[in-house]
Amino acid sequence: MTDNTEHGFASLPPPAAALGSAFARPKLIAAACIIALTLLGWAALALMSAGQGDMFAVLCRPSAGALSAADVSVVALMWTAMVLAMMLPSAAPMILTYAEIADTAARKGEPVVSPFALAAGYTVIWLGYAALATILQIAVTRTALLNSGLAAASGLFAGAIFIAAGVYQFSAFKHACLRQCQHPFPFFFANWATTTRGVFRLGLKQGLFCVGCCWAMMLVMFAVGIMNIVWMAGLAVVMTVEKIGAGRRFSHAVGAALILIGLGFVAAGFSAHWPGHAI
Predict the structure, then answer these.
(1) Does residue 58 form part of some domain?
(2) How far apart, in whole angstroms, are the C-alpha atoms of residue 267 and residue 155?
(3) Shortest CA distance to 226 belongs to which of 130, 152, 125?
(4) Is residue 180 part of a domain?
(5) Which pLDDT value is given to residue 63?
(6) C-beta separation of 83 from 14 below 8 A
(7) Tell me: the pLDDT tens digits for 257-271?
(8) Which pTM value belongs to this model?
(9) Which residues make beta-bridge pairs with 152?
(10) Is 1 inside a domain boundary?
C-alpha cells in the first residue's frame, strides 16, 4: 500500500492516485509553476526581441503624437514578461521555503494554503513595478533619452544609471531587504497564516522586500537596451545568486563593477564631446 491513503486517493486507480498525490504536494506544485512561468517569460521575451523593430518603432519617435492603448499594452507586456523571466527564479528559494513548510503542515493534517496565493501576492508587487517601468520607458523615450535600440542615447545617461545601481548595492536599505529575501523562514515562522488572504499578504510583503533589493539593478536595462536578452540573463543570474545566500562581499563586488562600468560610460560620453572627437 502506498501513502496515497493519507491524501484520500486510495479509492482511485493507481495512475490517478499517483497523479493526485503529486498535485497534493505544495512544494512540487510550486517548483513546477516557477519553472513553467519562467520559461513562459523567456519565450515571450525571445519573440518580442525577434520582432523588436516593428513592435517598438512608434516608441522611438520622440515627436510622435499620443500613444494608443495598443502601443502602451505592448510595452507593459514586455515588462510583465521581463518580471516573470528575471524575478521568479530569484524568488524560488522564498516560494519553495513556504511550500516546504506547508508540505510539512499538510502531512500533519494542519490547514495550509496553496503556494499560488503567496506567488500571486509576490507577482502583484512586481506587476506594479512593471507598470511604473512602462510609464518611465515611455517618458524617457519621448524625451529622446533612449535611442532606436531602446538603450540609453548618451554615455552620460547610461553612466548615471550604472553608477546609481552600483551605489545602491552598498546601501543599508538594500541589505535589509536582501536579508529578508535570503532568510524567509523566520519571516514565515513569525507571520504564518492559514487563510488565502493572509498568505496573499505574505506574498505582498515578500514582493516589497524583493523590489527593495532589486529595483535599481533592473533599471540597468534602460542603459544597455531594454530588450537586451544577454544583459537580462546576466542580471537575473546575479540577482538569483544574491538571494540564495551570497554574502555582502558578492553584493559589494557587483556594486563596484557597476560603478566602474558607469564611469566608463561617463568617460566615453565626455570623450565624444572633446575637441577633435565630435562627429
Answers:
(1) yes
(2) 8
(3) 152
(4) yes
(5) 46
(6) no
(7) 999 999 999 998 877
(8) 0.80
(9) 146
(10) no
Joined together, the cell numbers standing for residue 11 give 479509492
Please determine, for residue 9, whether its predicted confidence score (pLDDT) is greater than 50.
Answer: no
- Residue 87 corresponds to which cell in the numbers above? 524575478
Its domain, for residue 129, covers 17-271
Q: Is 204 in contact with 91 (CB distance < 8 Å)? A: no
Angle in degrees, CA 20, 23, 28, rounded to 5: 145
Residue 279 resides in a domain: no
186-208 tens-digit pLDDT: 999 899 999 999 999 999 999 99
Return the residue matching grid coordinates 515562522. Answer: 189
In angstroms, how far is CA 151 from the centroid of its own chain?
19
pLDDT of residue 1: 40
What total of structural domains would you count in the chain? Answer: 1
Alpha-carbon gap, residue 272 to 195, rounded angstroms = 59
Of 99, 130, 98, 144, the C-alpha closest to 218 is 130
Q: Is the pLDDT of residue 61 over 60?
A: no
Extract the C-alpha cell encoding 274.
Answer: 572633446
